[in-house]
Structures are given as structure tokens and as C-alpha cells.
Amino acid sequence: MTDGNTVSGRELALLEGGDVDLVGRVVNSSNATFLVQLSRDGDSALAIYKPEAGERPLADFEPGLYRRERAAYLLSDYLGWGIVPPTVVRGDPPLGIGSLQWFIEADAGQHYFSLFADAPETHADLARIAVFDCLANNTDRKGGHVLRGPDGHIWGIDNGLCFAAGNKLRTVIWDFAGDPIPAALLADIEALLADIEEPAGGLAGLAGLLADGELAALGRRARRLLRAGVLPDDATGMRYPWPLV
Q1: How much of the chain, in percent, has pLDDT values that exceed 70?
Q2: Average model confidence (pLDDT) for the chain?
Q3: Is the pTM of this model over 0.85?
């Protein structure tokens, strides 16, 4: 698989086994989202906590968006694309079951639009996120959901509205429409499709997070991208989230 992964054992150890203390609430988030501190054996770090108890009811997604956050990480990790920060599900944080995602230190003034305009060296990574969002059927890829870490790594966060069975793709990343998908990424998607059809490998964990119909739809999207070989276009001009950033 493509080597875009930057996950360390330290990150997973803190996420999976660290004590969780609330630091504060993230403002301007549609669902209750919290900054927390993780502590374990003298080590500490920050994470983003999204409890199921803080979710607003949605007409087109069942409760438990934290499962989709985890599923997005597993897909990114399986592909080796390093798009989604390490994310786990835990039932013991202060507000109950939810997702814990490694906090990315990033310049809040940078987002997809500024990176595309001012940092052409990021374009390959941005296009890879576009491919990922087509696979995951991301319904909410806002510009502010694309972060550049201190080391220059490009991340895609806020992936809770993914993996619907029906076509719900809404994203701001349309600048690469019609561009060929790199051969290395197509090879990763081909391996993904094989594992979806025989889920005994790296994707076995998705079965407990997504419905059977959603897993089947992931396979259909993989086949579609392999047949097309290029990133799709938005013929309607309407497949944008709101707000854009």
C-alpha cells in the first residue's frame, strides 16, 4: 500500500489506554466536540473527543457517527494513505462512548482553499484526499477539514458523515476533477476491493462499524473508480457542503 502513514505506537497507546480529561469544548461544531488530554505512564497528549451523547439527530445517518470516524481511520490506515489521524472508539471517557482522535497541531488560517492556491507542493496529497472521499462517500468535506501539520503532512479530519450506501458525496475538492488517478492509488483500491469481497484481511474491523449495505456500497465505489481511472466531476455544480470552510 502507498506509504502515507505517520502513526506511532505512542499515539495508539495513549488513545487506547490513556486517562481522558476534558479540557474544553470545540466551538462552532455542529455536534458536541471536545478537546481532551490523554495521560498514561507520565506521557500526555491532546485528542478530539466526539461522544455519541453529543450528536444531533440526523435524517440520513443513524446515531453513532463516532463509528464512522473510526471506520474512516481504518480505511485510511488500510490503504496506507495517512489521511485520517489515528482514531479509536472508547466507552469510558467522561461523557460516554465516542471517538478519540489524535489532535493535529495546525495553523487555523490554512485550509483546503489556501493550500491549493498557495502551496502547489500539496496538490498530490489534496488529490489523494479527493480519491479517499470518493471511496468513503464523504458528505461533508469542508475546506477547514483539511489540515497541514507542523511537519507538512496533510490530514483530513471530521469524517463522521461518510459511508452512506447512497451517493451523497459533497466536497469542496473539485479542482482535480477529470485528472487521472495515480497508478499506485489504483493498485491500492484494487487490493481494497479484493479485501471487501473476502473480508478476512485488514478491513475485517469495518464489519462491526458499518452496515452490510454500506460495505457493499464501498465495494461499488471502488469498482467505479477503477473503471473510470479518473476523479469524477460534479456535473450539477451542487455537490458542495455548507459552509464551505
Answers
A1: 96
A2: 94
A3: yes
Contact partners, residue 59, CB within 8 Å, separation at least 6: none
DSSP string, the chain: --------HHHHHHHHHSEEEEEEEPTT-SS--EEEEEEETTEEEEEEEEEGGGPPP-SSS-S-HHHHHHHHHHHHHHHT---SPPEEEES-STT-SEEEEEPPP--TT--HHHHHHH-GGGHHHHHHHHHHHHHHT-S-B-GGGEEE-TTS-EEE----S---SS----BS--TTTTPBPPHHHHHHHHHHHHHHHSTTSTTGGGGGTS-HHHHHHHHHHHHHHHHH-B----SSS----SS--
DSSP strand pairing (87-90 vs 19-25): unpaired
Sequence-distant (≥ 6) Cβ neighbours of residue 218 within 8 angstroms: 135, 136, 137, 163, 196, 206, 210
How far is 130 from 17, CA to CA, in rounded Å?
32
The C-alpha cell 462491526 sits at: 208
pLDDT band at 199 (very low <50, low <70, confident <90, very high): low
pLDDT at res. 207: 85
Per-residue pLDDT tens over the stretch 74-130: 999 999 999 999 999 999 999 999 999 999 999 989 999 999 999 999 999 999 999
Torsion of CA 188, 191, 196, 202, to 10 degrees: -80
User: What confidence tier does 5 reach under pLDDT thresholds 50, 70, 90?
Assistant: low
Domains, in order of start, for the chain: 9-228 (1.10.510)
